[in-house]
Amino acid sequence: MKKIIFTSAFFVLGLISCQQEQVMEEPFVLEETKVEANPAVQRTFIASIEDASTRTELKENNRVKWNAGDVISVRPDATPAGYFYPLADFTTSTGGFVAEFTGSSATAHQYYYAFYPKGAMSSDIPYEIDDKYYQGMIIPTTQTATADGFADELNIVHAKTTNMNSNLSFRNVCAMIKFKLSGPGASNVKKVRISSNKDQQSGNTPLLSGEAIVSLDDGSIYNFNYGTLKPCNYVDLEGSFAASTDYCIMVAPNDMPDGFVISFFNAEGKEFAKKGVKSASLSPSTMLNLGTINIDADGFVNGFYEKYKTASTAKPVTFVVIPEGFTKSELEDYHGKAEAMINFIFDVDPYKEYVNYFNVYILDAVSDESGADNRTTNVYKKTFFDAGWSDGYSDMNAASDRVYSFVETHCPDIKNGISTIDNTAIFMIINDDRYGGICIHTSTGRGYAMIPTMSGERYWAGNNSGIITNTGTWWNTALHEGGGHCFGRLADEYWNNYIYTSNTIAEHSWQVPMSLNVTADKVNNLLWSHMIPTTQGVKQANKFLYVSTYEGGFASYIQGIWRSEEVSCMDDNRAYFSAWQRWLIAKRIHDIAGEAFTYENFIAKDKQYIGIQAGTANIGTEGRLKTHYSGLSPIYNASSTPGQVGSPKEIMPPLPPPVIETEGPKYETIEQK
Question: Domain tally for the chain?
Fold first, then answer.
């Protein structure tokens, strides 16, 4: 059997760095069982792979095919006296998806155990531990790279008959790690190594290869502390590697809470590229697909990703974080910033309540220079997505086609058909400490948020400084631009001095509606009317204390536009979405997940916050409020003064409204300008 099937599974990925470590543990001694002479008779077994129709395999239309000449090793179960018969070879002359294997073995036994390949068996005699029996097997530490699969006889499968029948349904003992290579550095690869990291909690290092003892009953690996071959925490795949070709590494199934490292070596044996995978879990018959790994000429692995959050729902919501203006040496800093930003967003409702709906990926893209273009000083940087802005920051933009193409190329959920680029929220973290932030959107729904990592805390007065003003960091910008505009498709709720004269908002009727958090017709189109209490300011079941109609919003209009609450994230970037904004975000989450969503569902899961919306329920002194997120600085009301209790002295203007790109993307080659 040259091929084997594996159930597709994708696990939490991430970028980490650690030093490779080989594990050498002392073996323990097992007593061999006794073997009787074999009164062999001719017999036939019918061999197949269990659940073939539900599994994924490299070829043959998702099914496994035995080849003529394949040999399996069969052993009857123990006699009443505890004796075992030797292994016997059974061969198929025809092959096929279900094949007949013939040979000689003892007859009239209740069970028969079978293994493939014969070359993986490290001993002819089984071993007994606590009245259970095991077979010695070898998972090679060094494996040969084979295009579109793996070397012959690398896959280890096990089967057990039941009730004296002759059917052998094989299952896989190992797990598989699959990947492709691309980029100019792919041709330099001569060896790929998978090495597990030490589990920091237990102090143990998961083992991936060596001589193991495998249960005769179910094919599971019991222990590696056996035999003359020392167990290892790594597996090497050696040979020649071609771009855009599948390669597979067979490893022992194992939980790896601290992940593993994939390293690339050239012909001289020098490691020239290395990336980590965080918190992987490999089970028998599963395939961990790392996707396409792009290796630049200098060895950088471009497009590699960390799966930072994993959904527990069948249809996840996908967030992607990408870096702009981070050089290779700054990627570790980028990952730290990305993780901190994600943690902040998912500690704010409704994202906090719905975190189990989300897959969140942190992608790598290296820039030649740090920062972004400064169009005021005419300083231009060579960066991956060509981001830049002037001092006014309302002109912030990047190469949108390149952004969408890069995410479509490297986001696992999009590549695997789980999500689309229009349904994927993209957060671009920009390595620049200037103030700014904007969301680029299209009428078809796709978009990305541009978020500079501006230094220090900021002080946003919004238009409601008579009520409360807000202090925060660039995380608040990410919440407003990414969580509010990009995913929530919410409009701004601050305003200027203009008057809105129409009673409709065009974006409400787009192919993908936007700006549903504001209205131009509070009589006939007040979408949140069901949330308003009968008596304003009085708590009422299934109503929200602060929801009403407040004039002003949509970034420009002091009259003719209405919002649902006095203040929110879409006004002054506070870590608080209004009840109606929370409803809109939660509804979109349910829509993507394919789940029904009702007002009753929302009420049952939502929290009502008192003391964040208005300054009348202040906690503490000087009018300070604290949000539900413990990492935030205090929020200040009108009685506070800049500079007080750590409040920044500089009042920041509101961030610009989203930029709407009406044309679809014109994809181009992903390269730096």
Answer: 2
